[in-house]
Every structure is written in structure tokens, then in C-alpha cells.
Amino acid sequence: MSDTMTRPATGGGKATRPMIEVKDAHKSFGAIEVLKGIDLSVERGQIVAIIGPSGSGKSTLLRSINHLESLDRGEIWLDGVQVNAPLTGKAFERHINAVRQRMGMVFQHFNLFPHLTVMENVTLAPRLLQGLSGEAVRARAEKLLDKVGLADKAEAYPSRLSGGQKQRVAIARALAMEPKVMLFDEATSALDPELVDEVNLVMKQLAQEHMTMLIVTHEMRFAGEVADRVLFMDGGVVVEEGPPDRIFTAPKAERTRAFLRKYLRD
Amino acid sequence: MGLDFSVVPEYAHFLWIGVVWTTVLTVSAALLAFFGGILFAMIVLYAPRLLAWPTRFFVWLFMGTPLLLQLYLIYFGLSQVGIDVPALVAGIVGLGLHFAVYNADVIRAGIVAVDPGQNEGARSLGLSRAQSFRYVIIPQAVRSVTPPLGNNLIALLKDSALVSVLGVAELVHASQLAISETYRPFEFYITAAALYYLLNLLLEAGLRAVERKVEATR
Amino acid sequence: MDLDLMIKVTPFFVEAAWVTVQISVLSLVLGLAMGALGAWARLGRSRPLRVLGGAYVSLFRGTPCLIQLFVLYFGGPQVGINLDPFTAGVIGLGVNIGAYMTESIRGAILAVERGQTEAARSLGLSRGQAMRRIVLPQAARLMIRPLGVNSVALIKGSALVSTISVVELTYTAQRFIGSTYKPFEMFAIAAVLYMAIIYGAIRCVQWLDARHAID
């Protein structure tokens, strides 16, 4: 990992630079423009929730930060490193693999690897990418599984787990790379209602540990509880943002009010 | 000895005859395979055991042995029991029976796959067993069996080449006749392959049209 | 039924069956290699390779295997390829079945959910690592059944090499039918042996399937 794009993490006066920074992000799928110039900045240890109707571009934004989608225009920075760096071919491939190791991503549909046990799911990336010994990785994984309350499921295969358990394993898997930020893409949307809380609990725990988190969600109450800041997106733009209290109780934009009315009624 | 495709046009009439006989062989065998397939499927599914079990054995035997071996059996077997048939007829019967067995398997599976609730629904309305079969089960099965039956037909066209071993002047054997006069196997076999490829393209286009029609009837 | 005759000729059939097994196994191995290569080409990022892979599949599935064998064995010497019947048989069958394997392997790889690659990539795994560690192991499981279907087809298809005078089961049966005029008896012996070989192949596939079942 000797890419020249990395600057020292604690350089003089640089400590205040944002953990995640998105500048003027544009993205189209065919004729449909899903991101129309997004700016976003997340400070170290901050928790930002992104809400908005489906099709608003919030998932695309999150996926772009992990470079699962590539922007048409704009820049994305992670802790002083440009994610969508102007590199090509093998050089970009090396760069993006290194950058992704520093962010954890959690998907709506878990995407656990069905042919690997829970333990193997969690240890795969550290073993392959950090060159750690089997024991060191195992110890770390055990600690993480314990943290998400699944120490007893280490040797089970994903097919034997409930949705909530799968998602908790997915969180442990992402944490195993010791990322600087965690990205959650509708992490509880695919879960039965009674399984949502166990996942939310793990996320709250991470919040208390001052993990930098970017959370795309449709759960307003949870967003209000954990987020330092809430972003409302609609039609590919950030309509408004602010502390959760203000956004939920006194939204300025009419579109935000309409969206929240619909949600609070449901 | 280099390649020289210029001899091929001189023997175009050989290949033309080959294409005609391949077509005759394929169409006749396909008809036999289609109706034979329906018959075998009905017997396996609905006939009394005394009839169903031997049929099942026959299906199993024909699915487990090579077509080439079956062609030899039918050609020499028929004459053994005193029925002397021309090679063409033996070829049609052999190909037809072989694929009837595969078609039967497809048709049987297609009928079984229709939700039993469909039959119950029809019967609860007062339809007879035959009416339920005719108006409810069959139309649904047709959709699911059309693509695999089409695949069997494509395989049949290609496997019709095997009938050349009986001396029927279809495309392969016609090529062999041309080769025996010119000693240019590469040129003629490649040309024959190209002709098969064209026939195959035509057949696939036809099958796609049929599939679209079946889809549209829904 | 002429049992005495059947007993007398059976050893020749058993010996021929062994040749059928050898041809089938060798061409299956070649077919798998060709299939892996073909799928790699068809799924790759190089357009010429994709076109080449597509042409391979289309040409070899669009023409009779018998013709392919004849081009190789009878036409080969004209372009400097001189093969003995056995080798020509293995290559002809293997390259032919490889075209079918290409589609099976490609289908299996495409059947693995996109989210699997995304999750692996989001952890920082490279494209190659995601393919090797995550996609291929899952695709392998999906390939076992088509592999079984292809193997059975290959065993029956191996009868074609009798036409280029490889002394395998069908060749032997045909020869004995010609010399004894007992087609039913000869067919029966060959059929039993083919069934036995196919049964063996199916058991192998079932064993693979059980070994690789998920939990």
C-alpha cells in the first residue's frame, strides 16, 4: 500500500479535514440523472443519516463512495485520499482495493458468502489482504462476533442464520478490516420488523465508540436517535440538511415536509 | 496436398441431394418423435402398469444407450426378424424412436409440473377429467415444453448425420460419395459442416417464431 | 437368445468398454479445460476474445459432432495434422463437449449474485480475488449438475468414434452384429455395459454433489 495519494493521517493542521468529502457528484444511468451535483462532508466520528424517497439517489451516493458506482463528474475523498482518483487500469485497481479496505460497507441484502462459515466470512479479507497470521485474525474475529452477539455461531453457515443474525455477521465482516468509516445501505430494510432492533443495537454501539458512519435508511426514529446530522435527498439533490431535531420537527423545505408527513402517517 | 475448394461446386448436386435427404430424414423423424413422444408420455403417466412398465423400460434403455448403437439394432434387427426395410426407413424409425423417448421425458415432466391445484380447481367447477386435461393442464404444459422440445429438434437435425452409417445419402454420406471421387475430405466435410450450420440457423429461427407464438397465446 | 455365443463374445465387449471409459474420461478432461478457457474468453473484457469464444460455441454446437470428427481425422492430413484414431477421437469429442461446457460454466458464473462480487470488492478484494475466492467456489457448485448431464451425453456420444475405427463398445457391437447376425444379443451386451458406465458416472457426480453441498 504505497500509493502516493495518501498523506499522513495526523499532519500538522490537517486534523480538521473531513473524513468523507463529496464534491459536486454527478451520476447518470442512461438518460436518467440520479445524482445532480451532491456536496457532502462528514467529520471524523460524526454520524450522518441520509433519508429520502426511493429513487432519490441516496443509495447511489453511498455506493459511489465505495466506488461500486463510478461518478460521471465530481470528487470523493476519504480521509485525504481521493477515492475516484484520476488513475487508470492496474494502477487504479490497486488504489481502489487499498481505499476500500479503509471503509466498511453493509448491504441491504447482507451479501454474506454462502460457501463460507461465519468465521470464514469475517476472516477472509484480513487473511488475504492484511497478511496476518491465522490466529491473530481469528482472535480479532472472535472479539467482533462477541461484540455483535454471535460468538456461538462462528462455525455455522449463513443459510442457518436469521436475517438479523446475517446482518450482524455482515457488520462484523466489515469491521474486521478495522475501517475508518462504515457505510450502511438500508441495512435493516430487508429484515422482518422484529429483527430490526438487534441490528440497530449494534449500530448504536458503534456510534458510542465514535465510529464515523454514513447511514442510508428509511427509519426516521432510528435516524433521529443516532445521527448527528440528517440529510434529506430527493430527485438527485440534497434538499436540506441539519441536526435531526430541526429536520424532523421544523423542516424548511416543502418537499421535506411532504416526505415526513407521509412517513409519520405510515 | 494443399486445400482446393474449387472442386466443391462441381459436386454441388451431390451436396444438394444430401441436403434434401437430410431434410426429409429430419422432418419425418421429427414427426415420429413428436407423436411418439406424446404417446409414450401418456402411457407412462396414465396407462395400466402392464403397459406402462415395459414402456418405461424401453424409455430407460433408449436414454441410456448411444443412438448409433440403436440405429444398428433397428437396421439389422428388423431384417433379423424378417422385416426388410430400406435404410432410409430404418434411419427414420431409429432417429424418431430415439427422440420420441427424449420428447416423452420432456412432455411427462411438463405435465407433472403443472400445479395440481389447477386440476383440482377445474374439477371443482364440474369439468370432467378429460376436460380438465384438455382445457386446463395441456395449455399450461405446452408453454413449458416448447423450448425443450425445440432443443431436441435441433439435436435431431445434427444427429441425423449418424444415419450416414446405414448408407442413406444424406449430407454426410453424400459428402463421402463426393470424396470417394475427388479424395478431398477436408473441403467437402467443411462444406457439409457449413450447410449443417445454415440448416441449424434456419431451424433455430423457425423455433424462435414458434416460441413467440406460444408465448403470445397467453 | 443365444447365451453360449453371448458368453463367448463378452470378454471382447468388456475390453472395448474399457476403451469407451478411457475415451470418455480423457475427452471430459479436455472438454472441461476447453470449457474453462471458453468461459474465460466469453466473460472477459477483451472484445476479440469474446467474439472468438462466441464463435467457438456457435460453430461447434451448430454442426454435428460426427462432421467435426471427420474434418479432423480424414481432413486433418491435408493440412498436416496426422492423428491416430484414438487421439483424434479424444480431441474431436473433447473440443465438441467443450463448447457445451463453455455455456454451462458461463451460466454458472453469471448465476452467482452480483451482490457477492460487490461485497467482496467492498472489502478491498481485487477483481481476481473476488472471482477466485467468492464467485468460482459458488459457481462450481452450480456446475456439478450440468457436468453430470454433459458427462452422460459424452459417454453416449463417444460411440461416434467407432466411425473412425476406434475399437470401442459400439464398434465392437457393430462388428459382431455383422459377423454373427445376432443384433439383439449384441445390443443387449453393449447396452448393459453402457448402462454400467453411465451408472458409474452418475455415482461420481452424486458423490461430488454431496461433498459440495452447502451445510
The helix content of chain C, as a percent range, equals: over 70%
Basic shape of chain A: globular
Biggest sheet character of chain C: none
Radius of gyration of chain C using CA atoms only: 21 Å
Contiguous helical run count of chain A: 9
Shape of chain C: flat
Number of strands of chain A: 10
Distance between the termini of chain A: 48 Å
Look at the structure and give the CATH class of the largest domain in chain A: Alpha Beta
Which chain pair shows the most residues in contact? B-C, 36 and 38 residues
Strands of chain C, count: 0
What is the CATH class name of chain C? Answer: Mainly Alpha
Number of helical stretches of at least 4 residues of chain C: 8
CATH topology of chain C: MetI-like fold
Name the CATH superfamily assignment of the largest domain in chain A.
P-loop containing nucleotide triphosphate hydrolases
Task: Please identify the structural class of chain C as seen in this structure.
Answer: mainly alpha
How would you sum up the major sheet of chain A?
A: 6 strands, mixed
Q: How far from one another are the termini of chain C?
A: 51 Å
Oligomer: heterotrimer
Unreliable residue runs of chain C: none
Pfam families (chain B): BPD_transp_1
Transmembrane segments (chain B): 12-45, 57-75, 81-101
Subcellular location (chain B): Cell inner membrane; Cell membrane
Keywords (chain B): Amino-acid transport, Cell membrane, Membrane, Transmembrane, Transmembrane helix, Transport
Descriptive key words:
heterotrimer, A: 266 residues, six-stranded mixed beta sheet, 23% strand, C: 215 residues, mainly alpha, MetI-like fold
List the helices and strands and how they pair.
The complex is a heterotrimer of chains A (266), B (218) and C (215).
Chain A lengths: L19 E10 L2 E11 L4 E5 L6 H8 L7 E6 L2 E2 L6 H12 L2 E4 L11 H13 L3 H14 L15 H13 L5 E5 L7 H16 L3 E5 L3 H7 L2 E6 L2 E6 L1 H6 L4 H12 L1
Parallel strand pairs in A: 3-8, 3-9, 6-7, 7-8
Antiparallel strand pairs in A: 1-2, 1-4, 4-5, 9-10
Helix pairs in contact in A: 3-4, 3-5, 4-5, 5-6
Chain B lengths: L6 H4 L1 H35 L2 H15 L3 H14 L6 H27 L2 H9 L4 H31 L11 H12 L2 H32 L2
Chain C lengths: L2 H41 L3 H16 L2 H11 L9 H27 L2 H9 L4 H31 L11 H12 L2 H29 L4
Helix pairs in contact in C: 1-2, 1-4, 1-7, 1-8, 2-4, 3-4, 4-6, 5-6, 6-8, 7-8
